[in-house]
Design a protein that fits this description.
heterodimer; B: Rossmann fold; four-stranded antiparallel beta sheet
Chain lengths: 336, 273
């Protein structure tokens, strides 16, 4: 049995890696300037200085790296939150965490904190906004002995509205150049010229993945409920606190670099749970990989669907994710 | 100091209301002790305090002489296993669920269950009779089977103290008897101390070595002792406000409680008249 499980997990991981590589290659080739796959090695090796070379390395590669970092981070955050709350409809966006992060980043743009403490102000303000919301949602719902999921989701949605209203308020009172900054950023796109932010996103999300593995057994125990987890020796209060911080970090990082990308954190862990099972030892990494592939693929769709114009990737994930969200809600049994 | 569990002057308050007051008792290895008492008398609270989910207002609890407040949850989980009223219908398989009982024993950087973990899980699944269900998902098996899986999981923790919170309350008599027979045989084969909350006084009388009767009115223990000592018509009247007759079960010779209903009394009067 154990051998079978390890075998199944390995096959799944290899499959996901292959999908991720294929999707990344597709993303390299597709775009307003079509580049054929077979030409890519040649361009990379000998084409230095050519237009194709700079499109590949200067535009498309950073986009792919950002896409897989953000997609992985959001899916991982979704998997962690779904594990803590035992609710498959929970994710950074539905809990209002993305909204909080975007409010944080807006304040950063308006008050120009990035001018004072450097580029790190973006992820930092996103993280602070995200963690504020997550602790708000949790403490507002923690009074009941067991967290009531519906109540919590509603609280999250409301906080999301409040946050987006506040963002609009900030936009209304802001100067025109700031306004454009905010609008462009909030639409959720993987078009990010700043390579430092891209590196931050990549290393931040990978670090998040590594850290999440310290909690994979605690998350497995939490599937049985908080009291049962405590009976199995999990310090539930501490574990939840760390996981909230981790999920806020991942969400804040994603939102601050790529804007609001809806539902990526919802559908990917949901489907990975169906395929890989509820064990977080495989669920976390497979959600990360699948989320990475999903967002890069959505970005390809966003770039080609009304080519030569380009849609924000958040629009694509919002449409696909929203439909799947409704489908998941309408299924009779939604259990973890 | 050979007691498995010692509870000393334990008190617990919830929203200013005294739920438990000055609770003291201890259990010996291999003893089957039932906690009984009316709804709201703090039976489940007491269990949650012993398993460190709730913090007592005052008093101490010792497991084999060690104060549980000085132990981590993990250390405690190596000595105590808890079976709750019901198991959440999660989507994992019975085997995965039972293996979770080995979590408190995982080494720091251990990622997979060892062969020993799996052997233990299989041993206790066999003992509880659910080995054939090992690949079935928890949310697809019956309530009784789920409770057996919970017991197998608890045993996989290899505890010295097994705590059960009304493990049979949602089950039919077949499963009630099956589960209590199992626990009572485990007590002997594994020399396990069993602390169990039971609602059904007759079940408690059949299986327990000793009873702890909680008095819901003041949060104190009304009486501890053998079933014969604790289960008297007066004590039930006092604690439960209910009239009962107590006779011996003809088979086991243990106390057996008969309800005295108004309906029956009326009929009796008519009969006499």
């Amino acid at each position: 049995m154990k051998q079978n499980k390890i075998k199944y997990w390995s096959i799944l991981l290899i499959l996901l890696m292959v999908i991720l590589i294929l999707v990344s290659l597709l993303s390299l080739c597709v775009g307003s300037a079509g580049i054929q796959l077979k030409n890519i090695p040649d361009i990379l090796l000998h084409g230095k200085g050519s237009a194709d070379h700079s499109i590949l390395l200067g535009i498309r590669l950073p986009r792919i790296v950002l896409g897989l970092s953000i997609g992985g981070a959001l899916s991982l955050a979704g998997a962690l939150l779904q594990g803590i709350f035992k609710n498959p409809l929970v994710e950074p966006y539905t809990l209002g965490i993305s909204g909080g992060a975007s409010l944080g980043v807006c304040i950063n743009i308006l008050f120009k904190f990035y001018g004072k403490i450097g580029i790190i102000a973006y992820p930092l303000s996103g993280f602070l906004g995200a963690s504020l919301v997550i602790f708000l949602v949790y403490s507002l719902n923690n009074k009941a002995r067991d967290i009531q999921s519906n109540r919590m989701l509603l609280t999250g949605v409301m906080i999301s509205y409040v946050a987006s209203s506040l963002v609009m308020l900030l936009m209304a009172i802001s100067k025109s150049d700031d306004l454009q900054n905010i609008v462009l950023w909030i639409m959720g796109s993987l078009d990010e010229p700043n390579t430092i932010l891209i590196k931050m996103a990549l290393f931040g999300s990978l670090a998040g993945l590594v850290v999440s593995y310290f909690f994979c057994f605690d998350l497995n125990a939490l599937l049985l409920g908080e009291d049962e987890a405590a009976n199995l020796g999990v310090n539930t209060t501490r574990t939840k606190k760390y996981l909230f911080i981790l999920a806020s970090f991942l969400t804040g990082l994603s939102v601050s670099v790529a804007g609001i990308i809806m539902f990526a954190g919802l559908i990917v862990p949901h489907f990975m749970r169906m395929i890989a099972g509820p064990d977080h030892r495989i669920l976390l990494i497979s959600s990360f990989l699948a989320g990475a592939a999903f967002l890069v693929l959505c970005d390809v769709i966003a770039r080609v669907i009304i080519s030569p114009l380009e849609l924000p990737v958040g629009v694509i994930t919002g449409i696909i994710g929203g439909i799947i969200f409704i489908w998941a809600l309408s299924r009779k049994q939604v259990t973890l | 100091m050979n007691h498995t569990l010692t509870i000393e002057n334990l008190s617990f308050r919830y929203n200013k209301e005294m739920i438990l007051k000055d609770i003291s008792f201890s259990t010996d290895p291999g003893e089957f002790i039932s906690i009984i008492g009316p709804n709201g008398s703090g039976k489940t609270t007491l269990i949650k305090i012993i398993s460190k989910i709730n913090k007592p207002e005052k008093g101490n609890i010792y497991i084999k002489g060690n104060n549980i407040q000085k132990m981590s949850n993990r250390q405690l989980a190596r000595h105590i296993a808890v079976v709750m009223q019901s198991v959440d219908p999660v989507a994992m398989s019975v085997e995965e669920y039972v293996l979770l009982g080995r979590l408190p024993f995982f080494k720091k950087y251990q990622f997979f269950e060892t062969a020993k973990d799996i052997a233990l899980a299989h041993k206790y699944m066999k003992l509880t009779g659910i080995l054939k269900l090992k690949d079935a998902p928890i949310n697809k098996i019956s309530g009784g089977e789920r409770q057996l899986a919970a017991i197998a999981r608890a045993l996989t923790q290899e505890p010295m103290l097994l705590i059960l919170d009304e493990p049979t309350s949602h089950l039919d008599i077949t499963h009630q008897i099956q589960i209590l027979e199992l626990i009572s045989s485990l007590k002997k084969t594994l020399c396990l101390t069993v602390l169990i909350v039971l609602h059904d006084l007759n079940l408690a009388a059949e299986y327990s070595d000793r009873l702890v009767l909680l008095n819901g009115k003041n949060g104190e223990i009304y009486q501890t002792g053998t079933c014969e000592q604790v289960l008297s018509e007066e004590s039930i009247q006092e604690v439960y406000d209910t009239k009962v007759r107590i006779q011996r079960n003809p088979v086991s010779k243990r106390p057996c409680i008969f309800l005295v209903t108004q309906n029956a009394l009326n009929k009796k009067e008519n009969h006499i008249l």
